[in-house]
């Protein structure tokens, strides 16, 4: 349960940051960076769970 919460939270935060940064370059870049950042957030949430909660 902790893993899903961390992955969802980290993915949401990083996706929002990717959308904000990409917004300076246009809607296409915002979308692409949001997707990339979302996948990074999933990895980050998994890594935080592995390092601190297992």
Rg, Cα atoms, Å:
12 Å
Main sheet properties: none
**Strand proportion:** under 5%
* Straight-line distance between termini: 12 Å
- Overall pLDDT score: 93
- String of helices and strands: HH
Helix content: over 70%
What does this structure look like?
- This protein has one domain (2-52).
- The chain is 87% helix and 0% strand.
- The protein has helices at residues 2-22, 27-52.
- α1 (2-22) packs antiparallel against α2 (27-52).
- The radius of gyration is 12 Å and the shape is elongated.
- The two termini are 12 Å apart.
Using brief descriptors, characterize the structure shown:
single chain, 54 residues, mainly alpha, 2 helices, elongated
Walk me through the topology.
Layout: H1 2-22, H2 27-52
Helix pairs in contact: 1-2
Question: In a few lines, what is going on in this structure?
Answer:
The protein has helices spanning 2-22, 27-52. With 54 residues, the protein is an all-alpha fold. Helix 1 packs antiparallel against helix 2 (27-52).
């Amino acid at each position: 349960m902790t893993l899903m919460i961390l992955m969802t939270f980290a993915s949401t935060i990083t996706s929002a940051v990717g959308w904000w940064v990409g917004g300076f370059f246009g809607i296409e870049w915002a979308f692409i960076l949001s997707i990339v950042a979302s996948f990074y957030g999933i990895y980050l949430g998994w890594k935080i769970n592995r390092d601190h909660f297992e």
